[in-house]
Amino acid sequence: METLKVIKIGGNIIDSQDALKVFLADFSKLKGPKILVHGGGKLATKLANKMNIEVKMIEGRRVTDKATLEIITMIYAGKINKGMIAELQANKCNAMGFSGADGNTIISIKRPVKKIDFGFVGDIVKVNTETGNLLLNNNITPVFCAITHDANGQLLNTNADTIASELAIAFADIFNVELYFCFEKKGVLKDINDDDSIIEKINSKNYQSLIEQGLIVDGMLPKLVNCFNAIKNNVKKVCVGTSEMLFNPNSKFTTIEI
Amino acid sequence: METLKVIKIGGNIIDSQDALKVFLADFSKLKGPKILVHGGGKLATKLANKMNIEVKMIEGRRVTDKATLEIITMIYAGKINKGMIAELQANKCNAMGFSGADGNTIISIKRPVKKIDFGFVGDIVKVNTETGNLLLNNNITPVFCAITHDANGQLLNTNADTIASELAIAFADIFNVELYFCFEKKGVLKDINDDDSIIEKINSKNYQSLIEQGLIVDGMLPKLVNCFNAIKNNVKKVCVGTSEMLFNPNSKFTTIEI
To answer: At A139, phi and psi to the nearest 5?
Structure first.
């Protein structure tokens, strides 16, 4: 089977126009089939503030009422996604923007209300690879924003890490999939103040002890859940670090193993 | 050659959520390959007002500065396009959203500044049918918003009628193309106050006299330029009217002939 790289970008790479431009130029040069996944949190918050729409976060997750879903759809699928597609084309990377509704690719259900009502937030139930695969086979790079749909006409805000992980798992049926989570840190760090204190391997054995030592906290916890979910479901390689891990063979980063 | 319907919707069909829902349900039932094209003018103006961004129109055309281009990208490619894709999927029509940047499908140049600087407005120079055709051949319906790109990373606001017309012309190489401009009127009218005074045929012969009689004015003038451009360039059928012309064989509308 051919190797497919599924690359999720977040944090500073999205928030800084300059960093994004550099990343997309490098990304365009990557050989072989590839899928890009992005969120875009800070820009959505910025627009919500401008429009006097309250931003509500619970446990680090955005509560998505109707007005917030609109903002997210405008920012993620509109401004960020189309800006990225235009930039990729300028770099001769033929790309195609996706929400989960496009090609009926990612179907989710509105998260059931338990203690907290997260609103229009989707939990993924099915990934259809047909349209993405059709494009990949024609040298077109799918670029996914963090929106899915419920197949009944409702768009749903969905965590970009989870989208990347579920895409990787679904495409693992037809490709050797490598999954990369790129952000501003070089990986999972032993010492949050030391950028070079990278934990190079995390596996089921040392994971629990890393949590107990307090080395995996906040946003890193759900990210690692997504990592383990992927590696346990047929994804061949799962890595967390800066985008350098994609382009520089000598760079260090965190690899997640079973 | 197979018949391809290129359908542009504008006016009330876009501005009313209910009308759009009904249209998309009907559209989903249309047999055979089809392409949908939409703008979304009023919603963009609404968001610009909310954000205190000045809306500047010259000769009925929107002047597109950087802030306006952002709004248009968010509304057209984000809110409207993704809402439509989700609704089409709910109607079992497998659809895929496009800006002109996606699949490098519509390349334009920023309109040269003569008397008026329209800002980030694009004039189409090339249409690539490959990605659209790939999807059509796999029963996926492309849905285009009114944005193109210059292949150098710049998105450009582009008239939706012109996009529909240029797509129709490009696809005429591989399909028998029928082009439909749908809006709230039943066609070009003899008497603006009489909805049933439809001019059923407009051709090069009666066109000039219709203009001289003052029956073709304002937005209808550029629309008819797009119509004639299509019919003179290998598009088999060009019609203007309500969406009823697509679904009801007995309905009346305006047909443009050479």
So the answer is: 60, 35
Helices and strands, counts by H and E, chain B:
10, 14
Token code pair at residue A1:
């089977």
Report pLDDT digits (tens) over A188-244.
999 888 999 999 999 999 999 999 999 888 889 999 999 999 999 999 999 999 999
Between CA B81 and CA B100 the distance in angstroms is 13
Closest among A61, A60, A77, A12 to B99, alpha carbons compared? A77
Q: Of the candidates B51, B78, B103, which has its C-beta nearest A79's C-beta? A: B78
- Residue A120: closest CA among A100, A105, A103: A100
Q: What values do phi and psi take at B114, rounded to 5?
A: -110, -110
Which member of B74, B90, B95 has the closest CB to residue A78? Answer: B74
Instruction: Give the model's confidence band at A32: pLDDT under 50 very low, under 70 low, under 90 confident, else very high.
Output: very high
Three-class DSSP category at B124: strand
Reported for B50-58, long-range contacts at CB under 8 A and 24+ positions apart, including other chains, are B50/A51, B51/A50, B51/A51, B58/B116, B58/B118
Of B95, B102, B140, the CB nearest to A97: B102
Helix axes B81-90, B17-29, angle to 10 degrees: 50
Contacts of A208 (CB under 8 A, 6+ apart): none
In this complex, do B75 and A76 lie within 8 Å of one another by their Cβ atoms?
no
Contact (Cβ atoms closer than 8 angstroms) between residue A153 and residue A135: no
For residue A50, the chain B residue with the least C-alpha distance is B51
Q: Which residues pair with A40 in a beta bridge?
A: none
pLDDT of residue B55: 87
d(CA B84, CA B99): 14
Please write the tens of the pLDDT for every residue from B114-145: 999 999 999 999 999 999 999 999 999 999 99
Domain housing B182:
3-256
In this prediction, the answer to ipTM > 0.90 reads yes
Q: Which residues of A touch B75 (CB under 8 A)?
A: 74, 78
Check CB contact under 8 Å for B85 and A79: no
Task: Report the Cα B139 to chain-centroid distance in Å.
Answer: 21
The number of distinct structural domains making up chain B is 1
Is the Cβ pair A153, B96 closer than 8 Å? no
Q: CATH number, domain at B75? A: 3.40.1160.10
DSSP string, B190-217: SSTT-TT-B--EE-HHHHHHHHHTT-S-
